[in-house]
Amino acid sequence: MFNRVAFVTGASRGIGRSIALTLCRSGFEIVVASPEIENNEAVAEEIRACSGQAMTLNFDVTSAESVTEGFAKTLKDKTRIDVLVNNAGITRDGLAVRMKPADWDLVLKINLYGAFLCSQHALPSMMRNRWGRIINIASVVGQAGAAGQANYAASKAGLIGLTKALAQEMGSRGITVNAVAPGYIDTDMTKVLPEEVKQKILSTIPLGRMGTVEDIAAAVKFLASEAAGYITGHVLAVNGGMYM
Ligand code: NDP
User: Fold this and answer.
1) Is the pTM of the predicted complex or chain greater than 0.90?
2) Which of 10, 20, 52, 69 could form a disulfide with 47 if both were Cys (CB 3.0 to 4.6 A apart)?
3) Residue 203: inside a domain, yes or no?
4) Domain holding 52: CATH number?
5) Residue 89 gets which letter from DSSP?
6) Segments forming the whole domain that contains residue 218
7) What separation in Å is there between the alpha carbon of 10 and the centre of ligand 1?
8) Contact 149 CB / ligand 1 (< 6 Å)
9) Is residue 63 a part of any domain in this protein?
10) pLDDT (tens digit, 0 to 9) for every residue of the chain, 244 residues total?
11) How far is the CA of 103 from the centre of ligand 1 (A)?
12) DSSP 142-201
């Protein structure tokens, strides 16, 4: 019996790290794919400490060369890719009227183009095996919009569109494609927000708390499982009710 292989981008910290650890506990071998090799190794060590298997890649989702090399190396070492979690993402916030073109481009390139490029490289292995799962980490902001985040909202709304298009293209091959749309999650990305902004966001969450990285990882674990085999093209909101 083989282990299924899950490729997680941006797995060096935050939500991606939690997804990697959670999928490893479900029996997946993990590919930890982020730019900083030392951070990736630290996560891989945690995976091995709980008897899981992990390989690390010095990986940049925006570089066609890095993505091609990373997937080729994975297929050489592991022979298969069963689950792709497109989690790598950044923010470069600012009002649209003053937004620098470079900040628009970088956010779209990492959050949307990166997910497309990785999907393109992961799909041939899934198609050969007639089984696969792509799980895109979108955002409540891609569903509801947010002032000061035109680039980020556009990238995450685009990711939802990509999810639905790929779900339609790949359904006949036994591959499901879904998105998880987190709300306000406690990670480095949200630590930088000013306290008054945090309190304002908290007041809009019916469940009355920030989400944890484990809340998101649990949703990804479900979508990666056999139990979710009849779900595709879906956007699973994990947001404490802040957008319904
Ligand atoms: P973090 O900032 O904690 O982590 C981001 C991860 O992405 C890091 O591992 C980082 O690597 C990696 N990364 C950045 N650029 C690249 C790149 N070019 N190629 C590969 N990896 C890259 O973010 P979160 O854990 O908070 O967010 C994870 C995902 O969840 C993102 O897509 C984000 O948009 C989404 N999300 C987060 C929410 C939140 O409230 N936190 C809410 C909604 C969605 P490195 O460590 O090397 O920088």
Assistant:
1) yes
2) 52
3) no
4) 3.40.50.720
5) -
6) 5-186+213-235
7) 6
8) no
9) yes
10) 679 999 999 999 999 999 999 999 999 999 999 999 999 999 999 999 988 999 999 999 999 999 999 999 999 999 999 999 999 999 999 999 999 999 999 999 999 999 999 999 999 999 999 999 999 999 999 999 999 999 999 999 999 999 999 999 999 999 999 999 999 999 999 999 999 999 999 999 999 999 999 999 999 999 999 999 999 999 999 999 999 9
11) 16
12) HHH--TTBHHHHHHHHHHHHHHHHHHHHHGGGTEEEEEEEE-SB-SHHHHTS-HHHHHHH
